[in-house]
Each structure stands twice: as structure tokens, then as C-alpha cells.
Amino acid sequence: MTAQTDTQGSVTAVYKVSGMSCGHCEGAISGELSELPGVSSVQAVAASGEVTVVSAAPLDEEAVRAAVDEAGYELVGKA
């Protein structure tokens, strides 16, 4: 995965998460990741296992992993 910076200076990163199977799963992960400093948008898609995060700066992968773990899922890595 390569983080992309858009014209407004935000960074978009896509992560693979295992264990998501429904809308509740998407909401749980989105809620935890939204709490990370600098995160402005989170879109989790259970069908693909992908979570797209838009933030002001690149996120620390261990912080992302901890947030996903807190939600009860496993961060596989960057997509």
C-alpha cells in the first residue's frame, strides 16, 4: 500500500482487516479508527475486508493495529 496525499494535504491509506462480516463489524472498526488523532474519515467494507482511512498525516501502523484489535478484529496489513 502506498499512502496517497490529495490536494488538500490529507493522506488516504487502505488496510486489510480480517473478521469483518456485517455492518456492525464495519461500524465497530470505523468507530475505533475514528478516535485516532488526525483521522477525518473511515470507510470499512466487510465484503472486501478493506478499511479506507483518510487522515491529516500518515498514521502509525501500530496505532491502527491497536484500534482494530480494540474493536475485536485483526489488522492483516496494508492493502
Characterise this structure.
The protein has helices spanning 23-34, 61-71; strands at 4-5, 11-18, 39-45, 50-55, 74-78. The protein has 79 residues and is an alpha+beta fold. Strands 1, 2, 3, 4 and 5 form a five-stranded antiparallel beta sheet that branches. α1 packs across α2 (61-71). The protein is globular and about 30 Å long.
List the helices and strands and how they pair.
Elements: E1 4-5, E2 11-18, H1 23-34, E3 39-45, E4 50-55, H2 61-71, E5 74-78
Antiparallel strand pairs: 1-2, 2-4, 2-5, 3-4
Structural class of the secondary elements?
alpha+beta
- Helix percent reads 25-40%
- Radius of gyration (CA) equals 11 Å
| Oligomer designation | single chain
Q: What is the CA-CA span between the terminal residues?
A: 5 Å
Describe the largest sheet: 5 strands, antiparallel
Q: Give the SSE string.
A: EEHEEHE
Instruction: Output mean pLDDT.
Output: 92
From the spread of the alpha carbons, the general shape counts as: globular
Strand composition percent: 35-45%
Q: How many helices in DSSP terms?
A: 2
Number of strands: 5
Report the uncertain regions: none
Main attributes?
five-stranded antiparallel beta sheet, 29% helix, 2 helices, 79 residues, single chain, alpha+beta
